[in-house]
Amino acid sequence: MENPIQHTDIYALSHHHRFQWEEAQQSYVILFPEGMVKLHGGAGEVLKRLDGKVNVGEIVADLKVAFPDADEIESDIIGMFELGVSKGWLRKV
Amino acid sequence: MTQASLGESVVQKVVQAQNNGVAASATQTQPLWLLAEVTYRCPLHCAFCYNPTDYDKHTQNELTTEQWIQALRDARKLGAIQLGISGGEPLLRDDIEDIVIEAKKLGYYSNLITSGVGLTEKRIQAFKDGGLDHIQLSMHDITEEINNFITNTKTFELKKKVAAMIKGHGYPMVLNVVIHRYNIGHMKQILEMADALGAEYIELANTQYYGWSLVNRSQLMPTKEQVDEAERITNEFREKSGSKMKIFFVVPDYFSDRPKKCMNGWGEVFMIVTANGDVLPCHSARVLPNMQFPNVKDTGLEYSWKDSPAFNKYRGTGWMKEPCRTCDEKEKDLGGCRCQSFLLTGDAEAADPVCSKSPHHYLIEKAIEDAKNPVIASQPIVFRNDKNSKKIIAGELKERVDEFHALP
Question: Fewest C-beta atoms under 10 Å: which of A19, B17, B278, B356?
């Protein structure tokens, strides 16, 4: 990883990407030119918290409260950010 | 769960469609992709167009605005989410603005697939205000000569203007370049042009042979060496340029050993509604014999997708014959393309002749040889236009379509 994800980093959805709930699929998706990605629940929970202001650490803290029983939630969240950046879904603000 | 495994599980499904050729992976049968071929009328006359050669039959009976809006609503209920507004040239209709507004309301990610002819400041502003998500512009070459030749129009300068207009309105620049004998030698320059235009995505779509491009196959097909070189240049550009542009190189199936997983499987993720309302699992499905495709004027899209015999006919692997039936790769490519099998072999259930295991593979080898034969290759190109379409419907130009088992 060139730029490891820091707790103070702020991310937003990349330009021309859209994040929305899909009723027919009962899941969150990211839409972009020529493609889409269906996200599982955990990834959707991370992405719906992105507002261009909140940082990674705050999202981790928030999700730890929301899902107190989830093991290793922090590494999952960081993994989601890493994947999102590497795929071009997320951009650093 | 480790970070690596999260990466796997996050992405349950990635679907990437590429207009004409398709690369995708999905397992559920929901029409995620709705392609609205709103008209077959077109100001360009491209030799490689995949539209049916008899399209002239469908230029007087197009769906109304209300019928399109109903189709959009019905498809959305079935789960469609990516909308391609295509043609022909969709901008020849004056209601694309209404379709865009409805698409936005319904939550589609909408894409206008255009040659750029007819795109004005006024219209692009209306699309932006209406919520159109992106515009895919076709480009043909870096030279005016080849652009104007292959499209049989003088559109080179216009393409550049439209590209600037798209960028100027804050749209991502998505370029589609169909690759054939006449531009395959300009791959590096085409990529540099796309980069200079600020393209975010470029699709280098090697011609696939359907419709007009099948009629012109011997005139358009490059050699294997040219394709390999084009791919090498593309990979080199990817590595060296430092460009952020995403490049899709759609490999031509004639030069591979295995067929493409056409449309990502029959009735798996794609639903096409044609200008006259036919509902198809792929662009050229109407070439297949003894098939009755549903039409939105008669039945709803839910019936078409879920219950119509046509959409169920080639779903999965149950319909297969040998060598597909016992092939350990059958799930990978689902036997290739039904239309290509029928057009070339006369049997829609035969293995796609692109496959080296197909007993009809010699037909592909022959087509490659024919394209190298100077006598055959020097036959004139049959450009896609109303006059030629009428001729083909009337049974003229027989010598160009006779070897195929249906009118391409």
Answer: B356
